[in-house]
Amino acid sequence: MSEFFNGIAFGEIIQNAANMTLPDPDLTLFWKNADDRVLWLDGDCDENWTVYAQMIIRWNIEDVGADPKARIPIILMINTDGGDLYEANMLIDVIRASKTPVIGINMSKAFSAGCYIFLACHKRYAMPSSWFLFHRGSGNVGGNQYDVVAQTKQWNEAVENLRALAVERTKFTEEELEAKWKNDFFLSAREAVEAGVADAVVTSVEDAMEIE
Q1: Of the candidates 48, 99, 42, 39, which has an alpha carbon nearest to the alpha carbon of residue 75?
Q2: Which fold has domain 23-208?
Q3: Residues 133, 181: Cα–Cα separation, whole Å
Q4: Phi, psi of 171 (to 5 degrees)
Q5: 81 and 123 in contact (C-beta within 8 Å)?
Q6: Could you report the per-residue pLDDT of 54-87, keeping only the tens digit for each?
Q7: Better-scored residue on pLDDT, 159 or 164
């Protein structure tokens, strides 16, 4: 034993310990949350959010054959300024296709694309200080005249899908929404409940996540 600690082996242990890389705490927390089917949708909605769609699909595969009411729900903690229209539409489609319940919780802000992703969730809750932002979004077109016409037509159709979702999932009429869409418009958590955007304002994490 004394030879081990006094020899080169002990020095190697110290060197190896110094070179050890600890697990990324953010990544560790991500997987701990994923074990409970909790996903944090924060930052910008971009191609990195594809993993959320993949995980929702994976959990649905695991749940095949189970009564949807008996399945462990998927929790989306939303705190985003928005992002890419097409990535958002992909996630919206996956959420709506999920037989496993998806619960959306606005933790602070569900802006732009994040607001429409929130609307797609089967149950929707808002923290007391959270806010929502609806708007048409913004984009760029380029190329020759025919390219611009084609891109504009496609963009308008994609935005129309969001408008239809908002009309379906809220108390806004088409006329009300069209009038509000002329500018960015914000809703507080309380106003969101009144407008049918959110089901309730929650002050308990357990209530929001429907933990029994």
Answers
A1: 39
A2: 2-enoyl-CoA Hydratase; Chain A, domain 1 (3.90.226)
A3: 10
A4: -90, 0
A5: no
A6: 999 999 999 999 999 999 999 999 999 999 888 9
A7: 164
